[in-house]
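Aggregate trends can hide what the representation actually does to any particular protein. For completeness, the protein is quoted in full, as a sequence line and a line of structure tokens.
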Amino acid sequence: MIKKLPFILFLMLSINLVAQTTNTVTIDWSFDSTPSAAGSANSSRTIEVGDMVTWNWYSGGNHNVKSVLNSNETFESAFFQNGGTFSKTFTLVGTNDYVCTPHANSMFGTITVVAEGVLSILEAKRLKFETFPNPASNNVSIQLPSGTEKATVHFYDSLGRLALSKKVTSIKNTIDLNSISSGVYILKVVTEDKIGSQKFIKN
């Protein structure tokens, strides 16, 4: 049994290493790369421990990536003027604020690191729904996924304030928008066990 123990320990370690998966998140790093930017220019991401973030910048401008004072992990790239790449693997759970030093007001973001496996759990609880039309002026319809009969819809303005809250069903799914002002909202749809969100524009 003693001779078999090292083999068993090795086997368990091997299985554990195979089970762990790491991902790489890419951020297009340029002017206006902020938490509100669309697509790969969005500078605030949530990753798991062990995942890597790669910042790519392709054009002119004297840019770098540097963690700020309250960041959970410390990192700093060189300055690149004609394109470059910087990568960082995050190993600690926590939040990491960062900026481009010369352009801190227009290039900034946060990398939030969660424990391994958390994102897959969150994905299982994420509600996928459709809104139409978007943008909309008077009414918007919420199409719930198959099997979801009812939900509560919340509209949050750009300051995070709740502007409107309505209940919808798979049949009665149209919401009157005349009580809220024109602007950009985060629309959250909540069921008993799932939640989803989208950006919504009221004309």
Notes: The first helix runs from residue 4 to 19. Helices lie at 4-19, 118-124.
